[in-house]
Amino acid sequence: MIIGAAVAGLLVACGGSDAPPPGVPPEDLVGGREARVFYARNCSACHGQEREGRIGPALTPDRLTQERAFYAQTITLGRSGTAMPGWGAQTISGGLSEQEITRLLEWLLEEAPNQ
């Protein structure tokens, strides 16, 4: 028990936790995490660690040229005929709220990769 607590403390101290930093308001979180952490855990396998694109398209601000509504709908409902799942609350149990989808989209559109 003591060893487990020590390991958990070490992981947090070394940045091994993906919990939000203290003081991050809930309205700034996506799936209980910062947008960048949510992306790394849930999107990077298909869209690339640096958002460069892999199976899915690149998700860098310069490549996202459609209207925001297009991307919000894509995140919410997914893309039929592709591996892109819907992340909206109605598509998967415990999915993202509209506010969380908006926050993720804002991060994708405003933040350069590696930030």
Computed structural class: mainly alpha
Report the radius of gyration as a whole number of Å: 16 Å
CATH architecture: Orthogonal Bundle
Could you spell the SSE succession in H and E letters?
Answer: HHHHH
Mean pLDDT: 83
Uncertain segments are 1-15
Strand content: under 5%
| Number of separate strands | 0
Largest sheet: none
Supply the number of structural domains: 1
Might you state the CATH topology name? Answer: Cytochrome Bc1 Complex, Chain D, domain 2
What portion of residues is helical? 40-55%
Number of helices: 5
Q: Just give the CATH class.
A: Mainly Alpha
Distance between the termini: 36 Å
Cα shape: globular
Full CATH superfamily name: Cytochrome c-like domain
Structural write-up:
This protein has 115 residues and is an all-alpha fold. It has a single domain, classed as Cytochrome c-like domain (Cytochrome Bc1 Complex, Chain D, domain 2, Orthogonal Bundle). α4 crosses α5.
Entry summary:
This protein is mostly helical.
Secondary structure layout:
Layout: H1 2-13, H2 35-42, H3 44-47, H4 68-77, H5 98-110
What descriptive keywords fit this protein?
single chain; 115 residues; mainly alpha; Cytochrome Bc1 Complex, Chain D, domain 2; globular; disordered N terminus
